[in-house]
Automatic annotation (TrEMBL):
Membrane topology: Multi-pass membrane protein
Record's keyword terms, sorted: Membrane, Transmembrane, Transmembrane helix
Protein name: MFS transporter
Segments passing through the bilayer: 59-79, 86-106, 112-134, 146-168, 174-191, 225-243, 263-285, 292-311, 317-338, 377-398
Organism: Rariglobus hedericola
CC terms in the record's Gene Ontology section: plasma membrane
Subcellular location: Membrane
Location of the Major facilitator superfamily (MFS) profile domain: 18-415
Pfam families: MFS_1
Amino acid sequence: MPPSPSSRSTLSEILQPAVIVGALGYFVDIYDLTLVAILRKPSLLDLGVPAADLVNSGVSLLNWQMIGMLLGGIFFGVIGDRVGRLTVLFGSILLYSLANIANGFVTSFEAYLVLRFIAGFGLAGELGGSITLVSEVLSKERRAYGTAVVATIGVMGAVVGGLVAELVHWRTSYFIGGGLGLALLFLRVSVAESGMFKQMKSAAPHVKRGDFLSLFTKWSRFSKYARCILIGLPSWFVVGVLVTFSPEFAKALNISGEVKATFAVSILYIGLTVGDLASGLLTQWMGSRRKVVLGFILLTVAWTAAYFLSADAGSRWFYTVIFGLGVGIGYWAVFVTIGAEQFGTNLRSTVATTVPNFVRGAVVPITLSFKYCKDHFGLLPGAMIVGGVCIALALWALHGLEETHGKDLDYFEPV
């Protein structure tokens, strides 16, 4: 039986170049972003880092990348609102692709840190730019489907990254990531600029665009912005602590069988793929972003508890828990979409690009807090304390945000 005209029009709207190329761009973004966690041990050992320093050196490596993402998020977010959404997508992918290729030639830990900072700076523009563009080119009735497609395809990049890391040398993994990014530049030619942005730029040239500091000049606007950031904290606690250092946690929990970070990251992102698809579809069917995010945060709480209660279990169960954690934090695209929908067209790119990167950048205080608590209270209690704080802040922040499902986005933010 052929599809109905309405279903055909829905598919044709969703599967347009902005969505498809945005999904592939996020795929490359996630592939490159997770390489640090996947390749932490083999790359650092190959560069001469002592085995006893792998945790601390891994924290430093991740933090430098995330600081780059935090600064890059501000830069590319402002550029997206002042110059255009496509400029961000072209510039960011070119920068992180070249940085990843250079990363394959690194010969010292110090150079490794610098190149991960540069790669992080470039990676910062991809997700926010894609979500902003997709949110503005799709109708308000269907944009949740578009962001679900972007997220579902995108997070598979980590799964592929884990598989590739098992088959090739760690340097080759970086070369592949850089090559995929450069190949994507050619596909970006088929993507058109957001009509909503072009209309604002031509019809209202007096409207101030991309004013990052304006997010901090009014309490109501700052509060809304801060809450958008805080609801994402559990995601990077899971990625940056529980999964990145899963081999160390497995040892402390006396897990039988080997737990490898590469496989753990792949399993997590398979779960994340399921979660992102489910959360995107649920927001469309339930007509609520906030209810779905609340449900997924509570699911993360349940699987986090299971993680710490896995003492003396087998590696298969431990990987199952990591999969469950991935499903739980699979509200990432919905979380970014909430940020994009909270603000007007003249600040949307700035918010949508900085919010996820501030959360990614929050992995710095998260991991430093974890390191401090680990040294004072032990590995497992330290992680429990940090995770509890992240989840509590996320629940508090979500409570104060407005529902934005179906919200008309064609308006300016007074600044």
